Amino acid sequence: MTASLSDDLKSIIDDTPVFATVATVQPDGSPQLSITWITRDGDDLLFSTQVGFQKERNLRRDPRVTVMINPADAPYTYAEVRGSVELSSEGAQVLLDQLSRKYTGKDYAEFRPSAKKNAERVVVRVTPRKVVGSL
Amino acid sequence: MTASLSDDLKSIIDDTPVFATVATVQPDGSPQLSITWITRDGDDLLFSTQVGFQKERNLRRDPRVTVMINPADAPYTYAEVRGSVELSSEGAQVLLDQLSRKYTGKDYAEFRPSAKKNAERVVVRVTPRKVVGSL
After folding, report:
1. A74 to chain B: nearest residue by CA?
2. Structural domains in chain A plus CATH codes
């Protein structure tokens, strides 16, 4: 069973630099949260992370993820997207630069020159199972 | 072991209508997210919910919670507060009106006249175990 994103939610993701809050499951079962840049491919959400980060290690162990999208200029509207992820290193640098240009207007290396050059980036593809909320 | 909130984080909670994202654990172990008004009492975070809401049922079953605070006007700063909750009906209406005035300038019944009059509200007190992030 997969779920669809509404047209409003797609527009917010496509047309605005909305940040997403991503929840993963810690080894002890408690929730872990982080803020991330986000885009989409059809109904799948896409974000970038790095091999070894807590979020990445959690998602390799338990692929369940919940993503909250809550526009800063409309704080009483939101979408809570529950789904599961696939991780892939293919296209990871392309996605990172695409996200960086969306949010900062610059390629990632220019936005964050201090970032490790050899860091192994990962594409996280979220296939929604359920979308809750007003978006 | 409890953790403290930084002075910057306290100021953001006290002086700005920052929204918080709250993560609880679903019965199946996956994360559940919601957006909420927030305040604090010392180092404890306080928010309001309603008996029977998913968040409330989750927290009664598993008191572990993670709260993300990420100011809309400073999206690269955040605090991820991990802790556990105590639920209480005492002072629930007072807290709800206090939060409503902070975020809307009105008592809750005036802000949301459609809200059920007899809904049983709950104070959720989060005692931080760990604070991660830049705030």
Report:
1. B72
2. 7-133 (2.30.110.10)
